[in-house]
Amino acid sequence: MKWQQALIDYKHYLQIERGLSENSIENYSYDIKKLINYLEEHSISVSPISVDNDVVKQFIYSISKSINPRSQARLISGLRNFFDYLIFENYRKTNPLDLIESPKIGRKLPDTLSIKDIDNLIHTIDLSYQYMGINLGERNRAIIETLYSCGLRVSELIELKISDLYFDEGFIKVTGKGDKQRFVPIGSTTQKYIEIWREIRNHIDVQDNSKDILFLNYKGKKLTRAMIFTIIKKLVKTSGLKKNVSPHTFRHSFATHLLENGADLRAIQMMLGHESITTTEIYMHVDRSHLSDVLNKFHPRK
C-alpha cells in the first residue's frame, strides 16, 4: 500500500535526515500506528495519508479520554511532523492538523532526589550480589554512580563504551540525541567504581557486538533500557525510599545539585547535552532559594 511505503520513507527520513535515535523513531511511528488502528477499528475507509481534518479531530478526541494532556500534545506534534513530511514529499497538499491546537500544559518540574537519598540508595546496593558467578552488585553501583555523577540519559548510559572513557583527562565521551557527542567530566569516585566493574567484566564471555560496551549483563550482552529501570525499581524498594524514581531522576538531581552549589546554566547545559538553554532553565524553578543566595552574594545593593 502507498501509505505503508510512506511510513517506511518517513522512518528513513527521521533516521538519516534528522539523525534521531531508534527510540525516538519508534515513538514517532507509534503515533502514526495509533491513527491507523483508529481507522481500522472504526471501519473508516480512507488511507492514513489521505485523512482530513474532521477524521483527525475525531481520532484525537477519542484518544484524549485515555491519555493526559502532555501525552496528547506530544501525539499531535508527532502527527503534525508526519503530515508535514507527506506534504514535502508530495503525498498530499495540506496538513490536517494545521487547525488543531495542542492542549495547554503547565511546565512540569522534574522530580529530584536529595544528596542523602542518593547516598542511601548507593549504600543499599548489595555489593556481594552475584548471578551465574558474575558480581552484578559492583556493576549496579557503577551504573547508579555514573547516572548521577555524569547526568546521563538512560540511552547514553547503555551505549557508553570503554573507548569513551578518558580517565586520565577526567572526562567521558557521551553520544546523545541525534548522535551528537559531548565530553562530560567524571569524578574520581565514579572512576574507581567503574574500574572495579571493568575488572569483573574482564571475566565475562562478551558477545561480539558488545566488545566495547561498558555495562553488560551476565551473558555478555548490552543492557536494555528496561533492565536499568528494573535495577533502580528494585533498589528503591529495598531502600524503603517513598519516591517515584527513574533513571531520569538521577539526571535531574545531577543538574539541580550543580545549580544549588553555584554552577552556571551554560555549564549545566553543556554537560546535559541540551540543544537549547531554555530546556536547562527548568532547573531554575526547582530551588528558588539559590537565586536569593546569588543576589545576596553578588549584587551591590543587597
Features:
three-stranded antiparallel β-sheet; 302 residues; mainly alpha; hpI Integrase, Chain A; 13 helices
According to CATH, the homologous superfamily of the largest domain is Intergrase catalytic core
Mean pLDDT: 85
Give the domain tally: 2
Main sheet strand line-up: 3-4-5
CA(first)-CA(last) distance: 69 Å
**From N to C, what is the helix and strand string?**
HHHHHEEHHEEEHHHHHH
Radius of gyration: 23 Å
Helical residues, percent: 40-55%
User: How many strands?
Assistant: 5
Beta-strand proportion: 5-15%
The CATH class of the largest domain: Mainly Alpha
| Poorly predicted regions | none
Note the overall shape: globular
- The computed structural class is mainly alpha
CATH architectural designation of the largest domain: Orthogonal Bundle
How many individual helices? 13
Sheet with the most strands?
Answer: 3 strands, antiparallel
CATH topology of the largest domain: hpI Integrase, Chain A
Can you describe what's shown?
The chain is mainly α. It has 2 domains: 2-88, Orthogonal Bundle (DNA polymerase, domain 1); 115-294, Intergrase catalytic core (hpI Integrase, Chain A), CATH 1.10.443. It is 54% helix and 5% strand. The strands form 2 sheets. A 3-stranded antiparallel beta sheet has the order 3-4-5. Strands 1-2 form a two-stranded antiparallel ribbon.
